[in-house]
Amino acid sequence: MNQYAVICLDNNPVSIERIRSELAPLSSVFDIYTAENIEDAHHALKDIHDDQQTVALVISHHHSEFNGVQFLIELEQLPHSNIARTILVSASSDIDSILTAVNEGRLNHCLTKPVQDQVLFKSAQKELTSFVIQYDSDNLLAYSDTLDQQRLLRAHIEQKIHSFQSGFIHDYHQLSDHALAERVVRALQDVFSKDDKTKAIRDYSPEHLLTVEGEDNRFLWLLIEGEVALYKKDELGQQREVVRHSKGNIVGGMSFVTGEPSFSTAITLTQAQVIKLDKDSFAQVMHSNNTLLPLFTNLLLRHFNRRLQRSITNKIKLQQTLESLEFAHQQLIEQEKMAMLGQLVAGVAHELNNPIAAILRSIETLSTHLDQILNSSSLKESNKGIDVLTHSKLAKPLSTSQERELVRQLTSTIDDRVLAKKTVRLNLNQDAEVLTTLKDAPIAGKELLNDLEHYHYVGNSIRSIQVCSKRIADMVKSLKSYAREDEEVRHYADIHEGLEDTLVIFENRLKHHQLEKHYDTNLPPLLCQSLALQQVWTNLISNALDALSERGKVTITTSQQINDDGHFLVVQISDTGHGIAPKDIKTIFNPNFTTKKEGNFGLGIGLSISQQIVSAHQGFILVESEVGSHTHMQVWLPFKQEGVPHE
Q1: In the sheet where 265-268 sits, what is the strand order?
Q2: CB–CB of 224/339 below 8 Å?
Q3: Residue 598: what pLDDT?
């Protein structure tokens, strides 16, 4: 039995059967009741009330022989149905009945007969989406497979961000230290009363050692009962008691947050009960309760503030203590800001940072090589250099295998692989004059290539600046709708150019790893939304890089494949990273799924959105992975898309 119900009222049995069939996809999350008269409808309302359900939607037909409007008016008097959304199905000429429903009852949507196939379903889906957003906001993702997924995702994201914001700007400063500590203790006890596999709630006898000054600490203790004393050595090495903690105080908070050695030695003075958290259990607890994170953060900040005040009062290494606390404050504030904003804004900020860094690097490269060109180029060299510059700005990218083959062919003419590789990169492998110089006068040829290489770097830098500037503009534009509503016009595009443009964004991260490209040079242009697909490449390449260890390899392969459904363009992005567990492969595309490392608060929508974009192109994504070895992500895009208008 579901929490919410839908009532459909119509005195025509044939129409009732059609309604039941059309609304069947909703039955997984809403119980569907049908009635052929108002009396049966009231019996249905009673059954719903007895089962402690709530009416979410009422669909009532109205015509000259059946007064469905009266039932809508009566709904207002019943507590378990007065919040229901309502749809009236009436003849277009029956204006008086519609006005009555609006004035005396509550009407959300009106359909006029005859009602075409699926129109009623879409209307019901829209109204039920509005209902759950208003009345069941904590469980929005549970309805994402049945109702309007994009609206639910947006509402879910807004709710998460609002929850973080409201938590952090809450007036917790109005609470006393004791009251704030009581709220945190009660909240944590409530969490661990249901599940305490890590045995976080513990009892310690007197003189139990918690932290040792100068040694590493991996835990945070919240005192429930008892007393703990903190000791610090003075200049003579004598242990001095600097403070005593009681119920609601935090022990080990500074070293736990910063990762630095413990500032003091903590010892229990009495029988004590504590909540002991390591980093894993801390992250799990804070994710399990949206209100607990800001509450605990305020307590932690207040704890740090009290420690600062005590340090000033006691005058023990005043300057060092102040600097340490300021560092901890700033670090904690920055971390919690990211948690508050969530992965949505954090991901966009990270993506903006990459192209900005690429632009700055390109400007620096551009300045350096322009100086070289202006100071040393001859007229003859300048003409050839302009050709090299133009090619580097506009040329389509070569795959790793293509470049390797051209270099191999050229080494039969130039017996120097380094010069051959540079000649191919400058697109001079067909230039007879350059090849003759390299063969007959290697030293002069090498100097010529070195001079022309400046033009190549200038062209590459200009292309990088153009690509990154366009990427920044696209990302800023997409902030309003990260879920990528389908607004971009489809056009024919070279997939390789989109991949290369995306790789520019990750240039700084890729330099730490090996990149291989195997491009099918015979790929025809694809009718697509190229900017939307770049979001897919961005997500997949970012995930691949996240999965790599210190030195790994990312391989990008394009090909054409044919299966029973037609002719496809396939883009495979592979990595040699840690892989995906078999139990997770079936759920990685679900909204809210995330494998982010500890401390990276996220909404888990990257792969879900990628799948939506690919599905909008009538394609699909395949995943093959082995834990500890590799992951292959294949994006299949059909060359022929049915029902898609051309430019």
Answers
A1: 209-211, 265-268, 228-233, 239-245
A2: no
A3: 45
Structure tokens at 214: 């100068």
Q: Which residues of 598-632 are buried (b: 16+ CB within 10 A; e: fewer)?
A: eebbbbbbbbbbbbbbbebbbbebeeebeeeebbb
Q: Which amino acid is at 140?
A: L
Cα(95)–Cα(91) distance, rounded to whole angstroms? 8
Give me the helix-helix angle, 177-194 and 292-314, nearest 10°: 140
d(CA 364, CA 359): 9
Q: Which of 571, 588, 570 is nearest to 625 (CA)?
A: 588
> Cβ(424)–Cβ(410) under 8 Å?
yes
Q: For residue 231, what are the β-bridge partners?
A: 241, 265
Q: Give exposure, 245-274, as e/b (b: 16+ Cβ within 10 Å).
A: bebbbbbbbbbbbbeeebbbbbbbbeebeb
Strands 228-233 and 109-112: unpaired
How many whole angstroms separate alpha carbon 76 and alpha carbon 67?
16
pLDDT at 348: 58
**Do residues 307 and 252 lie in contact, with contact meaning Cβ atoms separated by under 8 Å?**
no
Q: To which residue do tokens 């709220």 refer? A: 183
63 DSSP assignment: B
Integer angstrom CA distances of residue 79 from 45, 51, 189, 224, 417 = 11, 14, 36, 43, 83
Rounded CA separation 5/53 (Å): 7
Provide the β-strand partners of residue 90: 62, 112
Nearest to 110 by CA among 70, 76, 147, 62: 62
**Pairing assessment for the beta strands 201-204 and 272-277 based on DSSP bridges:** antiparallel
Tell me which long-range contacts 257-263 makes (C-beta under 8 A, separation of at least 24): 257/300, 257/328, 257/331, 257/332, 258/324, 258/327, 258/328, 258/331, 260/324, 261/213, 261/214, 261/215, 261/216, 261/217, 262/211, 262/212, 262/213, 262/214, 262/215, 262/216, 262/217, 263/213, 263/232, 263/324
For 491, phi then psi, to 5°, come to: -150, 165
- Averaged pLDDT, 112-140: 90
Q: Is 489 strand, coil or helix?
A: coil
Q: Which residues pair with 630 in a beta bridge?
A: 626
> How many Cβ atoms from other residues are within 10 Å of residue 344's Cβ?
19
Q: Where are the alpha helices (DSSP H) in 76-148?
A: 95-104, 119-135
Tokens of 492: 């024919």
Q: What are phi and psi of 109, to 5 degrees?
A: -155, 145
By the 8 A CB rule, do 120 and 60 touch?
Answer: no
Position 600 confidence tier, pLDDT thresholds 50, 70, 90: very low
Task: Express each pLDDT in 78-117 by its tens digit.
Answer: 776 778 898 988 876 567 666 776 666 667 888 888 888 8
- pLDDT for 623-644, tens place per residue? 999 998 999 999 999 998 776 6
No. of H helices and E strands in the chain? 21, 20
Taking Cα atoms as reference points, which of 603, 609, 604 lies closest to residue 160? 603
Is residue 228 a contact partner of residue 271, using CB atoms and an 8 Å limit? no
Q: What is the DSSP letter of 25?
A: G
